[in-house]
Write a structure and sequence with these properties.
This protein is an alpha/beta fold and 315 residues long. The protein is 39% helix and 23% strand.
Length: 315
């Protein structure tokens, strides 16, 4: 294919890109600065493109630049292609480079403090060109809106609109201190919890309740629901763990929060023949909004975390 001034169309692809930049910037001066060229070079390229097209593409005034209908059509038809080219090139360049740049991650407070943060020094030493920004929050962040590259989620099912990598399976445990058991006794069945001091996550409304199924029963076993009450509640499993270790009651929490207390003997498991359900997720995931290209820093972080968690939770 040839243009009207006998130049191959391929020779004018750069000219077309410059036209899209001119449309975005609104002036020859700003467009030239954006491209790192002189204003004269910018003007010359657009004039060459107009001669090749055979129609005016730009209306020039002393104060601004506006595209003609033909110019707007060209920009509308090619802008997406140039954006895709830039995206593809960035992806290819990323393949050849070491992971680098800013990586923004959000994670639940207790999990991050107990299990994630202790692993981060090794990751940062392995990837010195990655700058990690960690947001500790139990609120569910809107990743794309708030600019996060990745989120750690403790859930039964990640959102279908996101890509999810499994970090580790997890389960819920019921724990108490030995001192509490000596003082108040040990429940033998879920119903016995109604007579105990329970340390729990507060509910927005209504009474708190814990659900159980037999640990070795069928998958569709009926749930037993037990209302619970006590003198302390908190929306953080790390706090509940410490209060349970202090002998104030029986607490329900994820295994990654209980691990250190169980390993040190400060906590013991209660009602081991019963499985708590519906309180916490059964998997830890790293998730991000779907995108055709995953930055190398994100891929490196996920791979590192999956390998690290394969060895189990820290105790």
């Amino acid at each position: 294919m040839e243009t009207r001034n006998n130049l191959p169309a391929e020779a004018l692809w750069a000219h077309l890109h410059w036209l899209t930049v001119l449309a975005e910037q609104g002036s020859f001066t700003a467009a030239a600065a954006r491209l790192g060229v002189s204003k004269a070079a910018m003007s010359q390229r657009i004039a060459e493109l107009e001669r090749a097209a055979g129609v005016p593409l730009v209306r020039r005034t002393t104060r601004s630049v506006r595209l003609t209908e033909a110019g707007e059509r060209l920009v509308d038809d090619t802008r997406g292609a140039f954006a895709q080219i830039a995206h593809s090139f960035a992806g290819v360049r990323d393949l050849a480079a070491a992971p680098r740049g800013l990586l923004r991650v959000t994670a639940p407070v207790a999990f991050a403090r107990q299990q994630l943060v202790p692993r981060l020094p090794e990751f940062l030493r392995a990837y010195p060109e990655v700058r990690l920004e960690l947001d500790l929050s139990d609120q569910l962040r809107a990743l794309a809106v708030e600019g996060f590259d990745l989120a750690v989620r403790h859930t039964a099912a990640p959102p279908e609109t996101h890509v999810a990598w499994t970090l580790a399976p997890t389960h819920t445990v019921l724990v108490a201190s030995r001192a509490y058991r000596r003082r108040r006794g040990t429940p033998q069945a879920p119903a016995d919890l109604a007579e105990h001091d329970c340390l729990f996550y507060p509910r927005a409304q209504g009474a708190s309740a814990w659900n159980f199924v037999p640990a070795r029963g069928p998958a569709d076993a009926a749930r037993i629901t037990v209302p619970v009450a006590g003198g302390f509640a908190a929306n953080n499993s790390e706090v509940l763990r410490d209060m349970a270790a202090a002998g104030l009651g029986i607490a329900l929490m994820p295994d990654f929060s209980a691990q250190s207390g169980l390993a040190a003997g400060r906590l013991v498991e209660v009602l081991a023949d019963w499985k708590p359900v519906d309180s916490f997720g059964e998997q830890l995931y790293a998730i991000r909004p779907y995108a055709s290209h995953v930055p190398r820093a994100v891929g490196a972080f996920v791979a590192f975390m999956r390998q690290s968690f394969a060895a189990g939770f820290l105790g």
